[in-house]
Amino acid sequence: MSLLKSIPKVDKFITNKTFEGLSTTLITKISKEVIANLREDILNNKIQNIDENILVSNVLKEYDSITAPSLQTVINATGIIIHTNLGRSLINKKSLEKAIEIATSYNNLEYDLIEGKRGERYSHIVKTLQNLTGCEDAIVVNNNASAVFLILNTFAKNKEVIVSRGELVEIGGSFRVPEVMTQSGAILKEIGTTNKTHARDYEDAICENTAMLMKVHKSNYSIEGFTSEVDFEEIVNISFKNNLIDYYDMGSGHIIDLPFNLSQKEPSILEIMKYNPSLLSFSGDKLLGSVQAGIIIGKKELIEKIKKNQLLRMLRVDKITLSILEDTLNSYLKNELNDIPTLKMLFISLETLEQKANTLFEKIKDICKCEVIKTQTLIGGGTTPNKKIPSIALCINDEKYKANQLEKLLRKNNLITRIENEKILLDFRTIQENEIEKIADIFNKVFN
Question: Is there a single domain that holds both residue 350 and residue 414?
Answer without folding.
Answer: yes
